[in-house]
Amino acid sequence: MGLKEIVTTCAGCYRTFKDLYPKYNGSSPIQVYHTVEYLDKLITNNKLTFKNETKMKVAYHDPCDIGRHMNIYDHRIPPGDPSVELIEFLRQNLASAVAVAED
């Protein structure tokens, strides 16, 4: 059978497996997901549902390797749950004031 998917919580590892390894070693049949992509896949396919009805605010930080390097800014975590309000940090995406290391 063999390995079909890799799921990583680390933005740097995601970029390495998804972008850098294929760039220098050729393509691979293994599908690579960052946690936010994999959760989105599970939610979209109704394999993961939320039952908590407690009202809450959730802020999500887009790591540099996910945003700037892989261009993933839109995410569905949490996915339209009316009990959860997704809030953004004051500065996010390309407007972020964090230090940026160039390739």
What can you see in these coordinates?
The protein has helices at residues 11-25, 35-44, 64-67; strands spanning 5-8, 31-34, 56-59, 84-87. It has 103 residues and is α/β, with parallel strands linked by helices. The strands form two sheets. Strands 1-2 form a two-stranded parallel sheet. A two-stranded parallel sheet has the order 3-4. Helix 3 (64-67) links the parallel strand 3 (56-59) and strand 4. Residues 95-103 have low confidence and may be disordered.
Characterize this entry briefly.
With 103 residues, this protein is of the alpha/beta class. 28% of the residues lie in helices and 16% in strands.
The largest β sheet comes out as: 2 strands, parallel
What is the structural class? alpha/beta
Structural Rg: 16 Å
Which of globular, elongated, flat, extended, rod-shaped describes the shape? Answer: flat
Q: How many beta-strand elements?
A: 4
Q: Give the rounded overall mean pLDDT.
A: 76
**How helix-rich are the residues, as a percent range?**
25-40%
Compute the number of helices: 3
Stretches with pLDDT under 50, minimum 5 residues: 95-103
- Secondary-structure element sequence? EHEHEHE
Strand order of the largest sheet: 1-2
End-to-end CA span: 36 Å
Share of residues in strands = 15-25%
Any descriptors?
4 strands, 3 helices, 103 residues, two-stranded parallel ribbon, alpha/beta, flat, disordered C terminus
